[in-house]
Amino acid sequence: MGVLDDKVAIVTGSARGIGRATAELLAEHGAKVVINDLEADLAREAAGAIDGETAVYTGDLTLGEAPGELVQTAIDAWGRLDSIVNNAGYTIDAPIHKMSDEALERMLDIHTVVPFKVIRAAAPHLREPAKREREEGREVFRKIVNVSSISGTMGNAGQANYSAGKNAVVGLTKTLAKEWGQFKINVNAVAFGWIETRLTATKEGENTMEIGGRTVQLGIPEAMRGMATYVIPLGRTGTPEEAAGGVFFLCSPWSNFVHGQVLNITGGQFTGMTT
Question: Mean pLDDT across the stretch 93-113?
Fold first, then answer.
């Protein structure tokens, strides 16, 4: 018997990396999970590989009615929604004097506007059952976890756009915590440090993704990767599975009295120890 039995979760950007590790961990503990990703084949492969009940919604969440359609996928499949993990994202790096308007707007769209729209679309499915439970004198907790970064909470050279989007989602988190605490909807964020994903892999080679017909270069220069052991007291970068552990905690019953917080998952990385 799992601690998340019969719970329904949406995890955006969950075909690979931290998102997939999170979806797998939630499912391992009993949750039914909606897998979402831009890459349809990869999303279906991830859903099929997960040991548990899954549904799939593919597509660009920055377009049209996609956030509402994502939420409706969970409702159509299982008739309820208990947890949302707003994880989808990527980077477009440049110093600010070389950064285009498009690069800024894309980062704000995926890291701040999309979580806002997904949460807004989910509002009736989270608030209305909570109102009934409150009238009945019952406490049933639901969870929202927004993914931020220490680039957002502390800043990072070359990432003015990404940092702005990741900082803004912290403000969204704290505001929503004040609005929805009355409904026993825990709203928290995680701020990741150096986790081994495509975003922190070497910038050289074929580390790219296609978004809206544009090829986006991911990763960081190899010289910067060599700094990891110097800035992380634990002496290494984190794994997607370790990152997922913090998200799982905030989706679990053990976090019922954790609300409006930002959990740093950094290995003690120096740039994130004072947030």
Answer: 97
